[in-house]
Amino acid sequence: MGTVRRAFFMATLDQYSQIVISMVLIAVLSRLLDSTDIGVAAIGLSIGTIAFTVREFATSEFLIQREELHATDIRTGTTLVFGLSAIIAVGLVLLSPYIASFYNLASLQTFICLVAISGVIDGLVSPHTALLRREIEFGSLTRINVAGAVANAVTALVAAWQGYGFMSLAIAVIAAAAVRAVLTFQAKPEIWMFRPCLVGSRSIFSFGGYKGASSVLDRVYESLPQLVLGRIMPLSAVGIFNRANLVCGLPDKLMLSAAFSVAFPAFAAEVRAKRAIKESYLRMVSYISVLFWPSSLMLAILADPIVNIVLGNGWLPVVPILRILCCATIFSFANILTYPVLVAFGANRDAFTANFVGRGVSTVIICVASFQGLVALALSQFISLPFQMYVSFHYIRRRVHFEWKELLGVLAKSGVVTVMAIAGPLAIVALNGFDFDLSLAETAVCILLAAAGWMAGLIVFRHPLLDELPAILERLFGRWVRKSTAAAE
Questions:
Q1: What's the pTM value of the predicted model, to 2 decimals?
Q2: Closest residue by Cα to residue 141 from 1, 22, 10, 257
Q3: Chain centroid to CA 86: how far?
Q4: Are 52 and 175 in a shared domain?
Q5: How many domains, in total, are found in the chain?
Q6: Which domain holds residue 74?
Q7: For 57-88, how does the pLDDT look when each residue is reduced to its tens digit (9 = 90+)?
Q8: Which residues, other chains included, contact 128 with Cβ-Cβ below 8 Å and sequence gap of 6+?
């Protein structure tokens, strides 16, 4: 149990450290680069991300989940991942002149070539990282990931300060990849893994088929709006949409990890024991919705001051796009659970199909909307996200046999708590003449009122999350509290 607790603590530390570093990088970099620079970098990084996601078809997770792992399995996994990385990198380099011509931006060619190099470096150590995860070496992984994030942030900021513009981010991804590679080899110096081997490669591709296809579809869905915007609109529009998307994703990163880390293992245990599955799933939905809805709507209400604080007053065009995205994203709460829940049932095919249908149709919707401009693109989320929500529930109901009225009953409690959470902040906005451009003091009051209203809602309506708050707080802060208590004694 001590090993598991340490693993959880290190994984949580890793996640939140990277979130903090990422937020600092976003805040400072947004003041050093303009929206055009951010737009070009977003296009280059999106192309690289989509391309290198293809290697998920030979996913290193095979090395984590295989019950009996032999040397040939490790060598084959390494050969396939590195080989695919090299092939993808060569393809990117060869295509980079045409991509740069497509966007009428010659310097994008160099950017893509640098991203290709970073992808090869990451491919070198991906199998080593998988083995560290298999061996629950989360301490080493945390050091590696945090050091890589720091290298990325420092390099990007220094390069931007020196006037390298959007190229700063390409230089940064190489620096981060190099740091991760050095530290990974230091933690696991297994050179023999690079001896070429293809024994059992069919099993690896079979294992990674659904995951690879789902991952590619996810990356295309996330990146395509920026790629389309970059072709039909000024690059500054890509930068605005990119920053709005990043800020909109903060509630997901900051609010849900602790609740999910408590709820999902319990749900997986219920599935294995074949008991109380419906109740466990509906409880998870209640946890996610009561955290996600208030935080997303609060971000919409406080979009003006948050953009000023996080991005700077040069990014005010982000505000209306951010506000629309935050309101639409409340429909995405179901998508967070779909893949892991179906995988817990062993329904990999259903997980892929749900993702393919939901993301596939949504990709068409947002691509069509992209041609109408930024506001239309943001508003299209009110079509695509509810559709994905319905698809998610449709496939999950095949395994978890709940009634729609039972789901609505669970969501009603979260909805009432959400209303209580945002009532105070909306009152402040009303007193401010319905002007959402709040001062820092007014913003602080809104946050306090939201927290008080949210907690009151949990208590008054006896929301299920109330029973889990001690466990969540223990997982987040228990270690620090125990250390402080021990030091005081």
A1: 0.82
A2: 10
A3: 26
A4: yes
A5: 2
A6: 1-194+201-232
A7: 776 666 666 667 778 878 888 888 889 999 99
A8: 184, 185, 187, 188, 190, 193
